[in-house]
Amino acid sequence: MPIRITLFGAAGDVTGSAYLLETSHSRILVDFGLFQRGHDKEERNILPEGLDPANLDAVVVTHAHLDHTGRLPLLARNGYEGPIHATQATVELAGLILRDSAFVQEQDVKRSNKKRARSGKPPLETIYNVTDVEDVLGMMTAVEYKRFVEVTSDIRVKFFDAGHILGSASLQMQIQDGGRTKTIVFSGDIGPNDVPIMRNPELQESADLVFMESTYGDRNHRPLQDTEIEFEEIVRNAVKAGEKILLPVFAVGRTQLMLYLLAEMFCDGTVKEFPIYVDSPMAIEATKIYSSHINQFDAEFQQLRRCRPVLEAMKSFTPTPTAQDSMALNEQQGPCLIMAGSGMCSGGRILHHLRHNLGRPQAHVVIVGFQSYGSLGRMLVDGAEKVKMFGEEITVRAQIHTLGGFSAHAGQSGLMEWLEPLAQCKPRIVLTHGEDRGRNALAALVQQHYGITPEKPLMGDVIEL
Ligand SMILES: [Zn+2]
Predict the structure, then answer these.
(1) CA–centroid distance, residue 88 to ligand 1 (Å)
(2) Which segments of 201-298 does DSSP mark as H helices, in order?
(3) Which of 156, 316, 347, 434 could cross-link with 439 by S-S, CB 3.0 to 4.6 Å?
């Protein structure tokens, strides 16, 4: 029987990553992420037909982001008993992300059910609960980078640093197939080169088949250095004016990068130290996890460690874990910077800070992450003059800055650099984790450079090797 890989997500889309790999001896799943976009995402966040958790032999996870781990608790709920292989940092971050996912679902369903009860509709249920999450976390076993793990009798996997978030990996999978060994590479999400803290993505050299992400296959990001300079200028001006800066952030990755950049400014003396608040329980926890794995940061960081002040400055932010702490920030006088979720301003504590400050022309809002269409963050980026929050209309007078260079994904040229050594042995290339725009452009470039025509499967398609 050929090796079969069925795509259960991230096919022509950037969320819901999931691959079922079947050989004549084993069945394993690579990632099992939540769909986070589209009006029908609720209907898609189920156990797909053709996937029986009780029949799986192993699960391998590339990194902790919800769009790669968010459906794992469904396995626990439906008879899977383990194991789930991931790096130590991924295990820890997944704990944070999945517990939050169960909590957010419960809150959302409670709210919807109140409305449904009033109109006589039956109540909705969450797709999983905290017990499922704890069960799935109990199945996770930590693996090390660059060391083979035997996941079944005929499959072994090696994890390579993908440079995307802490613990992220690209996978090299070796499969014993008759007398031959076949190699399949799963890129996971590939990080950009030369960003602070994160190591550059590690390269692999040979494969028969490569599954590769194509999120930014059609463009390059603005150079990071330009973005850093712009950020520094905004901070310097706001501090001089004694003003507030609001930074909507994603808890994992972006918060830690921004803390690092601020610490660097303090140490270089380009900006005088001023109060920084991390107003998100999840970001506070994620920062603790990052701090306990600094041996995995890049060489530049290792060098800076010797310069104690940066490390000290990175720790000098004030956590505001409780809602009361958070509310007290409204009364804060003088310059300060508040980081809070959600990253797209679609919920969370950042909403309260925006409500208090959007109407003030002196306040600054700095957007440093991707904003999907329809989110409040996107409206601010697009220059909305008025926005609706908590049932009231607020006129936007604050200064909105959009900084585009902080992506955790490689741009087009970074993706091509990652592929370069692999392409030499002319593997089959399958482009996933990208919308048509990204993956069509990358496919054309790969064809032009290497004479390989990448495949662009859709949801439910099967690749045979
Ligand atoms: Zn990711």
Answers:
(1) 16
(2) 224-240, 254-268, 281-291
(3) 434
